[in-house]
Amino acid sequence: MSIPHSLRTSITPTELELVASQQLVEIVPLISMERTAFISGAYGPLRPPNKAKVPLWMAFNLKLKKKCHIVAPDWLNVEYLQGKLSLETTKPEFSSLPFRFAEISKVLLDVASDDLENPDRLRSLLKDLREARQAKSRDGLKTLDHSELSLPNLCSMEINEIRPFFVQSMSLMSQLMPIATVGSLGDS
Predict the structure, then answer these.
(1) Regions of the chain where pLDDT drops below 50
(2) For position 106, what pLDDT does the model report?
(3) 92-128 residues labelled b (16+ CB within 10 A) or e (exposed)
(4) pTM
(5) Which residue ranges does the record assign to the GINS subunit domain (predicted)?
(6) DSSP bridge partners of 29
(7) Integer Cα distance of 54 and 68 in angstroms
(8) In sequence order, what DSSP letters do the residues of 108-176 get, joined into one string?
């Protein structure tokens, strides 16, 4: 069931996964296939055991039909994520991660966990990373200033999560600003 537009404050995580499904990932095909044209572009040819880059949606479908193995992106490994978690917990700024890392990692862990090295540890690290970044987001929103908001290196899912609060806060601030400005004019 779809939610009426008037009640929606943000894009759903499922919709973000759909957008992220356009990202290219590497696969090792288990079938041969000629170059095939789709609305989003032409992909292939697929020739086992040569790797090929295809959109995540195509890799997802081929994987479900047991016609490929998905190669994990460079950033989806225990060592890399441990390093990022360490930065998140020791530095005040957000570490740089792929913009759609949350959506892509969720899809890959749901569909291709057998192609990933140590998927349980990856899930745990991604959860810890998400919690550390959410804590930073909350701290950043506590010090929200009407003149500037700078949260570099936020990812799409994180932006989507704070959007409703941010929009509502900025609306209230803009309503209060004229009152504050008028009050300060009377002081002079």
Answers:
(1) 1, 3, 6-7, 182, 188
(2) 95
(3) eebbebbbbbbbbbbbbbebbeebbeebeebeebbeb
(4) 0.78
(5) 75-176
(6) 68
(7) 11
(8) HHHH-GGGSSSHHHHHHHHHHHHHHHHHHHHHHHHT--SS----TT--HHHHHHHHHHHHHHHHHHHHH
Go through the domains of the chain in sequence order and give each one's CATH number: 10-178 (3.40.5.50)
Question: Is 24 exposed, middle or buried, given 0-12, 13-18 or 19+ CB atoms closer than 10 A?
Answer: middle
Vertex 120: Cα angle to 117 and 126 (nearest 5): 95
Strand arrangement, sheet containing 52-55: 52-55, 24-29, 68-71
Contact call for residues 154 and 94 (beta carbons, < 8 A): yes
| pLDDT tens string 114-167 | 999 999 999 999 999 999 998 887 776 666 555 555 668 888 888 787 766 666
Structure tokens at 162: 């704070």
Alpha-carbon dihedral sign for residues 12, 120, 84, 99: negative
Half-sphere exposure at residue 178, Cβ-oriented, CA atoms within 13 angstroms: 4
Identify the DSSP state of 38.
Answer: E
The two tokens of residue 38 are 């789709």
Quote the CA–CA distance of 107 and 56 in Å, as a whole number: 9
